[in-house]
Design brief:
Elements (H helix, E strand, L loop, with lengths): L2 H14 L3 E3 L23 H4 L9 E9 L15 E10 L4 H15 L7 E6 L3 H9 L7 E4 L1 H4 E2 L6 E12 L19 E14 L5 E14 H8 L12 H11 L7 H22 L8 H19 L7 H12 L4 H5 L1 H35 L4 E2 L1 H11 L3 H10 L3 E2 L1 H18 L5 H4 L2 H7 L6 E2 L6 E11 L2 E2 L2 E3 L3 E6 L1 E2 L13 E4 L3 E10 L5 E13 L3 E6 L1 H25 L4 E7 L4 E6 L6 H16 L4 E7 H6 L13 E7 L7 E4 L14 E8 L4 E8 H22 L6 H34 L4 E3 L2 E7 L5 H15 L3 E8 L2 E8 L1 H4 L5 H10 L4 E4 L3 E5 L6 H15 L1
The protein binds adenosine-5'-triphosphate and magnesium ion.
The site of adenosine-5'-triphosphate (ATP) has 16 residues, from β3, β8, β9 and α6.
Length: 879
């Protein structure tokens, strides 16, 4: 049975048992910014398990693409892959242990025909219920092994959430592999291979780790496709199954080594094959190499593969070739591989080339470091050394650790972390961060610290009455600030939005009884206090006085239009380019906005046009924009998008565009927005481009900005139409014909000038003089560009056969020179470059070139004739 058949059989089997088959979700988990990569089938169903979402059916089945970072180091062995496919059946409060166990057994025995004698079962220590069900279907008691919490209890890693015991099915490769009398499925000796895990989530674990029974119990199972294929194909490892053989063969071809000859090179080949496969899938789903998060995981395995490729004698990039094999082998199951083939190969190529540049030097440094470490008492590679390899040569620290371990050395990873922290410190120092101390003096901040926090009322209002709590001038707290002074103001409440999440700060005025402050910037001081930065433009403002804080409202509305438009754009991008597109940053200003996102290929013109249409359609539908505060976990469970790596508080503000049935976008966002999308008016993209590897930026305008842009463009078009004397609609064709005309006129002019220069050249020949037997011609000609001058020089040289030619011509009010010396005279020591240099210098300019040809430019036209007279003299000197 092939891997493909196994996958299909599994899904059909559970479909027949009433399960709805759900396609694999992306390796980038949707709506769970805390999770790096999808690591199990249940990841996409998590909200159903926690009760925060409603499943399309209480019984689900899937074949899920998974990636496990924790298993990177084990790849090359026979148990672990980084990327693998997990088959799974799920019950959301529907069937429980009895059915899960019976069906698993039926599938394994009846459909896969695995002999019963080859199978062992593990259960959780006190799970007698499961024990009973396994016995009921005919498993003998000695084949059921009870295991502890570590192996057979599945729970949220130290967190709160659903949890429960599990039961696993293991395959026995035979007693000959046994590690001793205590050998059992729970030991890692290699005799047993776990193929299927059935998890029974029946408890809820609270913060105190107390477990209470869930009202609705769930089933979550995971069967490794590759492991199971290994077993049913009678093989010992993944790499001998049909899922891998072609990929391994390709590696073998590339390296010119046979698989199965030498354990060391075999292992390296397995790593290259496995990582090549994983890399193709990760990039397909939108992961881009970087030094953080998912991108770092990708970088790590890509570099690990490159390194092992080196040990196999591959000295140039090769992973793209492995990926091609993966795409052609698996593209029919995962069409996204085929769809994204070009960008995938491009990303691999770039990243591999980048590492390749430093790989050799890095490797020799590593070897040197390892040699030194061997002589040390502690046999340890220092944090600094690991850091240097990482920082200068791009060696992931895990890779250095692995190489070190191979040579029985250890590594100081804490020391490495300390170096990394130091580097971050340096980066921070180089970056100007707004801290309360940098806005307010220590003293001022000390005094203001009594203020707990500023109440922000700006979501609802753009003006409010407030009390002045702090005034700081020149870093010192003051009782008053008067006209002309720069001031920082703290109020008890404010409608002013302080710069955050890419949205720029509001501007406006703070008006007191006896004075007025123009606010030009607003910042968060310590995450609690809002500081208004501005200038007293009238009278004076006093501590304790009641003032009116008034935001520049039209400007605020412009910003809100742009901010809501970024959400619509984000949704449209995902719709058109794929859901792996993620926001990477944004700037929301009143006159325009920009939106940065991860995407590894240029966005096509048609795609861009489609994105723009979708956004404008969203505007015309005039959808409601609702803002709501809720616990972060609830927001994410309900599908709100949040930025990966961003720290959020327990309670977050969410912004939803559209109603229950017309929802277009749902994001965690603290910005200010319009109330209905129609308020945005119109959306126009003004630019799209790359801002670094795998990152793109779209710039756009809305509302008044868009109106102004279109007005300006229209006006320009009208002007051009007027100049061209055609209606605006005909500008394009008129312009094309005009350019064509211009082009043929230009060609005609060149031909004419050539003809002319040929005739002139002939007439100039009469001015040749003889200097010590050498023909010298130094004259000025009336041509208008260097090309023509050259052409004239060529004609003259041909006519002369042997000689020195210096031609001068004036254009743009400056003299220009061309010098030529025939080869026979170059042999006698004459040099066109030298001659033209001196001649040009004589007119206040400069020049130079090769012995046969030189050119120069002068400054003073009046000195031109004088300069040409120099030529005969210069020639005479050399002969
Ligand atoms: P192990 O202890 O062998 O690492 P696990 O307990 O981590 O396995 P589960 O989390 O229960 O495995 O995952 C369910 C199934 O997925 C396993 O029974 C196995 O068939 C498969 N699986 C898990 N990790 C891997 C991996 N790294 N490579 C291939 N298959 C895997
Ligand atoms: Mg594991």
């Amino acid at each position: 049975m092939t891997g493909d058949e196994l996958r299909e059989k599994y899904l059909i089997f559970f479909e027949q048992k009433g399960h709805k088959v759900i396609p694999s979700s992306s390796l980038i988990p949707h709506g769970d910014p805390t999770l790096l990569l999808t690591s199990a089938g249940m990841v996409q169903f998590k909200p159903y398990f926690t009760g925060e979402g409603v499943p399309p059916s209480p019984r689900l089945a899937s074949c899920q693409k998974c990636f496990r970072t924790t298993d990177i180091g084990s790849v090359g062995n026979f148990k672990h892959l980084t990327f693998f496919e997990m088959l799974g059946n799920f019950s959301i409060g529907d069937y429980f242990k009895k059915e899960a166990i019976a069906w698993a057994w039926e599938f394994v025995l009846d459909r896969l025909k695995i002999p019963k004698e080859k199978l062992w079962i593990t259960i959780f220590l006190d799970d007698d219920e499961s024990f009973g069900y396994w016995r009921e279907i005919g498993v003998s008691a000695e084949r059921i092994v009870r295991c502890g919490e570590k192996d057979n209890f599945w729970g949220p890693a130290g967190e709160t959430g659903p949890c429960g015991p599990c039961s696993e099915i293991h395959y026995d490769f035979g007693e000959q592999l046994s590690c001793g009398p205590d050998c059992s499925p729970s030991c890692g000796c290699g005799r047993f291979l776990e193929i299927w895990n059935l998890v029974f989530t029946e408890y809820y674990q609270d913060a105190q780790k107390k477990r209470t029974p869930l009202p609705k119990k769930n089933i979550d199972t995971g069967m490794g496709l590759e492991r199971t294929a290994t077993v049913i194909q009678g093989k010992r490892s993944f790499y001998d199954t049909d899922l891998f053989t072609l990929i391994v063969q390709r590696v073998s071809q590339l390296t010119g080594r046979k698989y199965g000859e030498n354990e060391k090179t075999d292992k390296a080949m397995r790593i290259v094959a496995e990582h090549g496969r994983a890399v193709a899938f990760l990039i397909t789903d939108g992961v881009i190499p970087s030094n953080e998060g998912r991108g770092y995981v990708l970088r790590r395995i890509l570099r690990r593969a490159a390194l092992f490729g080196r040990t196999l004698g591959l000295n140039k990039p090769f992973l793209g070739e492995v990926a091609k094999e993966v795409i052609s082998k698996m593209g029919h199951v995962y069409p996204e591989l085929v769809k994204r083939r070009d960008p995938v190969l491009k990303v691999i190529g770039t990243e591999e080339a980048r590492f390749d540049e430093t790989l050799s030097t890095g490797l020799s440094l590593l070897n040197q470091i390892m040699e030194q470490a061997k002589d040390r008492a502690n046999k340890k590679i220092s944090g600094e050394e690991i850091f240097k390899l990482y920082d200068t040569y791009g060696f992931p620290s895990e890779l250095t650790a692995e190489m070190a371990a191979d040579s029985d050395l250890s590594v100081d990873l804490d020391g490495f972390e300390a170096e990394m922290e130091r580097q971050r410190e340096r980066a921070r120092a180089a970056h100007k961060f707004i801290s309360p101390e940098s806005i307010l003096s220590q003293e001022a901040f000390g005094k203001l610290k009594v203020i707990k926090s500023t109440e922000f009322v700006g979501y609802k209002r753009t003006r409010c009455k407030a009390k002045v709590l702090g005034l700081v001038v020149d870093g010192k707290p003051q009782e008053a600030a008067s006209e002309g002074e720069q001031v920082e103001v703290v109020l008890d409440s404010t409608p002013f939005y302080a710069e955050m999440g890419g949205q720029v700060a509001d501007t406006g005025e703070i008006i007191g009884k006896q004075g007025k402050i123009a606010v030009s910037d607003v910042v968060w001081a310590n995450g609690e206090i809002i500081v208004h930065i501005g200038k007293v433009v009238e009278g004076a403002v006093f501590i304790g006085e009641r003032v009116s804080a008034e935001v520049d409202r039209p400007r605020r509305l412009d910003i809100a239009r742009n901010h809501t438009a970024t959400h619509l754009l984000h949704a449209a991008l995902r719709q058109v380019l794929g859901s792996h597109v993620h926001q990477a940053g944004s700037l929301v200003a009143p006159d325009r906005f920009r939106f940065d996102f991860t995407f590894e290929a240029p966005v096509l013109k048609e795609e861009l046009a489609q994105i723009q249409r979708i956004v404008n359609e969203g505007i015309r539908r005039n959808l409601p924009v609702t803002k709501k505060e809720m616990p972060y976990t609830q927001a994410v469970a309900e599908g709100a998008m949040a930025l990966f790596g961003e720290k959020y508080g327990d309670v977050v503000r969410t912004v939803k565009v559209g109603g229950a049935r017309s929802m277009v976008s749902f994001e965690v966002c603290g910005g200010t927005h319009v109330d209905r999308t129609g308020d945005i008016g119109f959306f126009q993209i003004v630019g799209e481009g790359s801002i670094g590897s795998g990152m793109r930026r779209i710039e756009a305008v809305t509302g008044r900005g868009a109106e102004k842009l279109i007005e300006d463009r229209f006006f320009t078009l009208e002007k051009i139409a007027h100049e061209l004397q055609v209606p605006a609609a005909n500008v394009e064709s008129k312009l094309a014909s005009t350019l064509e005309e211009l082009d043929s006129e230009r060609k005609r002019a060149i031909a004419l000038e050539r003809q002319l220069s040929k005739e002139t050249a002939e007439s100039l020949l009469s001015q040749v003089e003889s200097v010590r037997g050498v023909s010298v011609l130094a004259v000025s000609a009336s041509v208008s560009n260097m090309d023509a001058l050259r052409h004239m020089g060529d004609v003259l040289r041909e006519k002369l056969g042997s000689g020195v030619i210096v031609l001068a011509a004036v254009w743009d009010d400056k003299p220009n020179f061309l010098a030529m010396v025939t080869p026979d005279l170059v042999a006698k020591g004459l040099n066109a470059g030298d001659i033209v240099k001196k001649v040009a210098q004589a007119t206040g300019g400069s020049g130079g070139g090769r012995p046969q040809l030189g050119q120069g430019g002068g400054k003073d036209v009046d000195k031109l004739e004088q300069a040409l007279k120099l030529v005969a003299q210069l020639v005479a000197e050399k002969l």
